[in-house]
Amino acid sequence: FGKFTTADKERQLEDALMLGDPVTELTIAIEINYFQLNRAEYFVPLMVKIPGRELALAKKRGVEHTLIDFVGEIKDDYGGTTVTNIRDHVDAKLSDKTAAELASSPIEYSSGYTLLPGKYTIKVLARDDDTGRIGTFQTTFVIPNLNKETKRVPISSVVLSGKRQSYKDAIFNVAKEKEQNKQAAANPLVQNGQQLIPSVTRVFSKGRNFYVFLQAYEGTAPPQPLIAFVSFYQGQTKVYETQPLEVSPPPNTRLQTAPLNFTIDLSQLPPGKYNCQVSVLDPAGGKGTFWQAPILLVP
């Protein structure tokens, strides 16, 4: 595969992208989130992860670094129109870690796009430039029109994470510096030079902090304080709950956006499966929103 020309590689990538059936030589997982930018548009951060065993295999072959190419597209699910294309790569250095260390370090690729409300299909293909192995991932996702939400508190995606790291040190797209800075400014997951890395697998270690992030939107009405908290359930039993957090949107923001940040120490909880619930309440308006997802806590 190393003898492939650039044209050969691009043809292989394009041919694989056009296939209807997924290619699973590489395991790929994706998380897509959305955050309202203005009354019409949403910023959609994309996180792609490939298991670290791919890096470990490259290390065992004596490779000093491995290049993972990414291509893909996002299509409007109603009209089938391609609204954006993905073409990028991650160059992962292997020389300073052992194969065992690399096996627990996934390959991470992140990018972001501006989309309108609607239903979309995304297909992403990854190719290991060293071996020629390919994997694809395809799914549909919906960007809701939060301007039409009247019965509940409008909120963004809820991001669960076990890791923050310097934005400059993160493994992310290799777009030009100007484009990177533009994305960092629009991406709510980048705060004070640190990027929150969304968990694609929803598996978390007791030895690390557990982060929850979302945004709530109060529109054009005079902003009122919101109350939010995070709860953990096993079945119908509540086993842990954070202290309520009261937040108000910063003054003079167009969408009256209230950022909700939680940093939680889960060391007191035993390993196991939980349902993580995020509650956002508007006491003045008599409204609330409740979001829930399963997680796995490991030692």
Q: What is this structure, in a nutshell?
A:
The protein has 299 residues and is mainly beta.
Q: Could you estimate the helical fraction of the residues in percent? A: 10-25%
Q: What structural category do the secondary elements indicate?
A: mainly beta
Distance between the termini: 40 Å
Shape: globular
Largest sheet: 6 strands, mixed
Number of strands: 19
Q: Overall mean pLDDT score? A: 84
Radius of gyration: 20 Å
Number of helices: 4
Unreliable parts = 171-176
What is the N-to-C succession of helices and strands?
A: HEEEHEEHEEEEHEEEEEEEEEE
Beta fraction: over 45%
What does this protein look like?
- The strands form four sheets. Strands 12, 14, 15, 16, 18 and 19 form a six-stranded mixed beta sheet that branches.
- The chain has helices at residues 6-18, 53-60, 99-103, 177-186, and strands at 29-32, 35-36, 42-50, 65-76, 82-93, 107-115, 118-128, 134-143, 159-166, 190-191, 194-198, 203-205, 210-217, 226-234, 237-241, 245-247, 257-264, 272-282, 287-298.
- It is globular.
- The protein has 299 residues and is mainly beta.
Which secondary structure elements does this structure contain, and how are they paired or packed?
Blueprint: H1 6-18, E1 29-32, E2 35-36, E3 42-50, H2 53-60, E4 65-76, E5 82-93, H3 99-103, E6 107-115, E7 118-128, E8 134-143, E9 159-166, H4 177-186, E10 190-191, E11 194-198, E12 203-205, E13 210-217, E14 226-234, E15 237-241, E16 245-247, E17 257-264, E18 272-282, E19 287-298
